[in-house]
Amino acid sequence: MLELFLTFAKIGSFTFGGGYAMISLIEDICVTKKKWITHDEMMNMTVIAESTPGPIAINCATFVGYRIKGLKGAFAATLGVILPSFLIIYIISCFLSNFMEIKIVADAFRGIKLAVGLLIFNAGIGMLSKMKKKLFPIIIFSSSMLLMLCSELLGFKVSTVVMMMTAGVIGLIYNSLQKVKEREDNL
Amino acid sequence: MIYLELLLGFLQIGMFAFGGAYGAIPLIRDVVMSYGWLSEDQLTYMIAVSESTPGPIMVNTATYIGSSQGGILGAVIATTAVALPSFIIILIVSTILKNFAENPYFQAVLRGIKPCIIGIIISTGLYMIINNCRSGEGLNHVNVLITLILLMFMLLHKRILKSKASPIHLIIFAAALGIAFG
């Protein structure tokens, strides 16, 4: 239990750049070094983590923790992966607004602000290049991008959650239409 | 009641954030703006801080916003709220619904959601870049220049070193440029 907590605390305090960076470290520690889970389970877990919502690191920690020690293990591992960043960010958040009054810090953040937009855009492009280039995903992708961009630039509000739910329902409808078509083709 | 708002806001983020941290940023932005917790600038700073500190980015942003809105209790509530949905979902998936990820209906829903998220992420990034480069009616020339330098840095890094520039390197470089042009 303590080992689970400490291992995930270590993973939580040494991975920069979010969940995907964490997956390789988790694999290294939990599969290769500690042999807590097998390579296949790890692959399986990555798929589950990617297709369920929430922070990927938490998905992985809960999964591994549960495998080894049940509910208590899941709790220990998840707490371990959260606690370091919680403490670090809590301390930073107490000082950041005071820091921002120093001119050099404010200047630095002016540059950083520009980098953040680029990073998000770049991450999106990376995901786009891995997307299947078929008509259905391309239509969903371009219409959600246009809708979102227009809403930002023209100032009307579209909820991202509503957009995602709509896209999910469209996915279901498209799937059943495809099945109907397949059945007709078979007749 | 700020604690209830934090709880509901971050539960929503934790429940709908597919596709890792970048998928969560547009959602976080949506929630934070509609509650009026942070300004556009403060939100960007917070994302940068979350990217440059270790740990899951969603947890970092939840802790930061929670603490800035409601002190230590706010931080605990927001962080718990963002982690809770995935904790419960993974427990369910690993106990009763072992083949849930392969369920064809679930896969069909994901097939719609994934391209939608990519569209949302790209337009969020694009909007942030556009927003930073304009000031009032005209262009903010210094910001346009810094953005172009950063873009060159990213492209050259990929071309020459054959790897993506790590977010931290980019953020440090951007900070240096901000100071140099300050």
Q: How would you characterize this protein structure?
A:
- The complex is a heterodimer of chains A (187) and B (182).
- Chain A has seven helices and no strands.
- With 187 residues, chain A is mostly helical.
- Chain A has three domains: 2-97, no CATH class; 100-130; 132-187.
- In chain A, helix 1 crosses helix 4, helix 3 (39-51) packs across helix 4 (56-99) and helix 6 (135-154) runs antiparallel to helix 7 (160-186).
- Chain A starts with a helix and ends with a helix.
- With 182 residues, chain B is mainly alpha-helical.
- Chain B has a domain at 2-103.
- Chain B has helices at 2-16, 20-35, 40-52, 57-95, 104-133, 141-161, 167-181; strands at 134-135, 138-139.
- Chains A and B meet through helix 1, helix 2, helix 3, helix 4 and helix 5 of A and helix 1, helix 2, helix 3, helix 4 and helix 5 of B.
Task: Give a brief outline of the structure.
The complex is a heterodimer of chains A (187) and B (182). With 187 residues, chain A is an all-alpha fold.
Overall pLDDT level of chain B: 87
State the low-pLDDT regions of chain A, or none: none
**Form type of chain B:** globular
Could you say which structural class the secondary elements and strand pairing of chain B correspond to?
mainly alpha
Q: Identify the quaternary structure here.
A: heterodimer
Number of strands of chain B: 2
Number of domains of chain A: 3
Q: Could you tell me how far the N terminus lies from the C terminus of chain A, measured between alpha carbons in angstroms? A: 58 Å
Distance between the termini of chain B: 40 Å
Note the main sheet of chain B.
Answer: 2 strands, antiparallel
Low-pLDDT sequence parts of chain B: none
Structural class of chain A: mainly alpha
Kindly state the number of beta strands of chain A. Answer: 0
Shape, principal axes of CA atoms of chain A: flat
Radius of gyration of chain A: 22 Å
Helix content of chain A: over 70%
Helicity of chain B, as a percent range = over 70%
Number of helices of chain A: 7
Biggest interface and residues each: A-B, 101 and 103 residues
